[in-house]
Design a protein that fits this description.
CATH superfamily of the largest domain: Carbonic anhydrase
Shape: globular
Radius of gyration: 19 Å
Largest sheet: 5 strands, mixed
Structural class: alpha/beta
Strand content: 5-15%
Number of helices: 10
Bound molecules: cobalt (II) ion
CATH class of the largest domain: Alpha Beta
């Protein structure tokens, strides 16, 4: 790819934005108050704002391999705490996607070096849901279901944090699990019953 093209694209983008709103960038420079925190996969096809039809200033974004929310990941935990406690987002979204290379890699018997401990968290999702997953004979369907269950378990991981528990109690923060279907472009709401999971796990994970 010719990187000069990127800068030309940028010039064009500035022109388009200013044509629609002459104050676009001066407003953008004043600060941000996004209502959404989007936690997605680093996969190049999962373009957070674009697939939602949103733009600069609308979404606080964190992306990593296989959209994981891991309790000792200082990066993800900093993002969650900052977005929830300071930006006061109203919705936290975990968005997985079909054809996720991270989820596929987690299910292969291969030593992937530094990725091993990261992907082990997905193997844990498989272990928790082993009965359901092993009952699916079609390999593609099984991977798709694992993508969905991984999203669900990362939502549960969010509920385990003090920031989310407190924001739910104080101002009704909601956690959502979505999947982006790369085959069709469709964004699918898994309709995770956030309040049910909250109730289920609070006995053990209650912090605040
Ligand atoms: Co992925």
């Amino acid at each position: 790819m010719d990187l000069n093209k990127v800068f030309k694209n940028n010039d064009q983008w500035i022109k388009e934005k200013l044509a629609l709103d002459p104050n676009f960038f001066s407003d953008l420079g004043k600060g941000q108050s996004p209502e959404l925190l989007f936690i997605g996969c680093s996969d190049s096809r999962v373009s957070a704002e674009e697939l939602m039809g949103l733009g600069p200033g609308d979404v606080f974004v964190h992306r990593n391999i296989a959209n994981m929310v891991i309790s000792i990941d200082l990066n993800a935990m900093s993002v969650v705490n900052y977005a929830v406690n300071f930006l006061k987002v109203n919705h936290v979204i975990v968005c997985g996607h079909y054809e996720c290379g991270g989820v596929k890699a987690a299910m292969q018997s291969a030593d992937l070096g530094i990725l091993n401990p990261w992907l082990r968290n997905i193997r844990d999702v498989y272990r928790i849901h082993k009965n359901e997953l092993n009952s699916i004979s079609d390999e593609d369907k099984k991977y798709e279901r694992l993508v969905e269950l991984n999203v669900k378990e990362q939502c549960v991981n969010l509920i385990k944090t003090a920031a989310v528990q407190k924001a739910y109690r104080d101002r009704g923060l909601q956690v959502h699990g979505w999947v982006f279907d790369v085959h069709t472009g469709k964004l699918i709401d898994l309709k995770i019953d956030f309040e049910k999971y909250l109730k289920d796990i609070m006995e053990i994970y209650h912090l605040d």
